[in-house]
């Protein structure tokens, strides 16, 4: 009898390993792993008045200097004026302000719609660049410059939708000490993408995180549309419960390249082969969908529909639960 119990326990253990492998085995990385124009005016940008979920990203523990070197704090809080494009062997091309201070972007921000998630303590270490008195130059498309309203009402410069920052840990113009901090901060390439990262020809983001006012940090697709998970799907093993007429309302998110994911653990992004042979993206083994009832980025009209559909948090859980 004791022997049988040992055999049964071993069988359960093997089954669990197989289920884990079944989810992980579907991971899909095949996609590869001189005119000057103004950006528009605004008031001076402050540090921000409200708490931010972005402040927990670990992006402000730079270590070393506090940034009290050449130029002082004023140079890292004033307007960027005429931007410039610099280049070095490590980062390739990256953007600086008119005085040569490196400009940065934060992976936990969103470009569609533009939103800064760096406030309070975060904004002290990563001063927001004001939108006023900023101009594009050779190598930067003027149409990519814009602005976003921060939580304190000030206007921050954006490049290709991404809010722009300086780093208090840079001691002098030309420093790039903010590169890679917390795994979420990168120097800005002239097209708004992270400098120094190798990517495919089309390296626009396919999955990212948006800080929703009602639900907190939720996953959105590359267009900024909220993605959802379905209670009638299964994660262990991965199975879909959305078939037939269900697919008229809930559209499977296509499998994504994990090098084009920001703000969530890319190692948990996998894919699932649907009955029709197409590949659907999954996060933490839960299949992802968009909702036809959402009309624009930021909409969460699918949240709680029939008590079975929920937006997905940055940890893969059901939002609002």
Describe the global form: elongated
Beta-strand content estimate: 15-25%
What is the structural class? mainly beta
Number of strands: 22
Order of helices and strands: HEEEEEEHEEEEEEEEEEHEEEEEE
Provide the low-confidence segments as ranges: 1-22, 24-38, 40-71, 198-202
Region (Disordered): 29-84, 170-197
Biased composition (Basic and acidic residues): 73-84
Keywords: Signal
InterPro entries: Lipoprotein_repeat, SCO0930-like
Written description of the protein model:
- The chain has 321 residues and is mainly beta.
- The chain folds into 2 domains: 135 residues, no CATH class; 105 residues, no CATH class.
- Helix content is 10%, strand content 24%.
- The chain has 3 helices and 22 strands.
- The strands form 10 sheets. A 3-stranded antiparallel beta sheet has the order 8-9-10, with no helix packed on it.
- A hairpin with a 2-residue loop joins strand 5 and strand 6.
- The N terminus is likely disordered.
- InterPro entries: Lipoprotein_repeat (IPR005297), SCO0930-like (IPR047910).
- This is Lipoprotein.
- One of its GO terms (biological process) is alkane catabolic process.
- It comes from Streptomyces antioxidans.
């Amino acid at each position: 009898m004791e022997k049988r119990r040992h055999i049964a326990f071993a069988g359960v253990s093997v089954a669990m390993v197989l289920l884990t492998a079944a989810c992980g085995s579907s991971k899909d990385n095949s996609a590869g792993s001189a005119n000057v124009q103004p950006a528009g005016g605004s008031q001076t940008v402050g540090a921000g008045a409200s708490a931010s979920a972005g402040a927990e990203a670990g992006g402000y523990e730079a270590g070393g200097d506090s940034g009290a070197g050449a130029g002082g704090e004023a140079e890292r809080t004033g307007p960027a004026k005429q931007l410039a494009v610099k280049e070095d062997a490590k980062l390739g091309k990256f953007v600086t302000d008119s005085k040569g201070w490196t400009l940065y972007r934060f992976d936990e921000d969103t470009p569609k719609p533009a939103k800064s998630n760096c406030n309070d303590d975060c904004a002290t270490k990563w001063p927001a660049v004001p939108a006023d008195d900023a101009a594009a130059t050779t190598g930067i498309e003027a149409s990519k410059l814009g602005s976003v309203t921060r939580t304190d009402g000030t206007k921050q410069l954006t490049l290709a939708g991404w809010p722009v920052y300086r780093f208090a840990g840079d001691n002098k113009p030309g420093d790039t000490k903010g590169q890679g901090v917390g795994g979420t901060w990168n120097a800005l390439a002239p097209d708004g993408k992270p400098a120094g990262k190798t990517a495919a020809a089309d390296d626009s983001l396919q999955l990212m995180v948006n800080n929703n006012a009602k639900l907190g940090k939720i996953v959105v697709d590359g267009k900024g549309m909220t993605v959802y998970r379905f209670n009638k799907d299964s994660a262990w093993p991965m199975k879909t419960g959305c078939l037939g007429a269900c697919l008229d309302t809930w559209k499977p998110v296509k499998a994504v390249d994990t090098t084009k994911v920001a703000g969530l653990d890319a190692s948990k992004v996998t894919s699932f082969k649907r009955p029709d042979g197409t590949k659907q993206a999954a996060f933490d083994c839960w299949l992802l969908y968009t909702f036809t009832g959402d009309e624009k980025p930021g909409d969460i009209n699918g949240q709680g529909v029939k008590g079975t559909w929920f937006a997905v948090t940055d940890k893969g859980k059901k939002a609002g639960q």
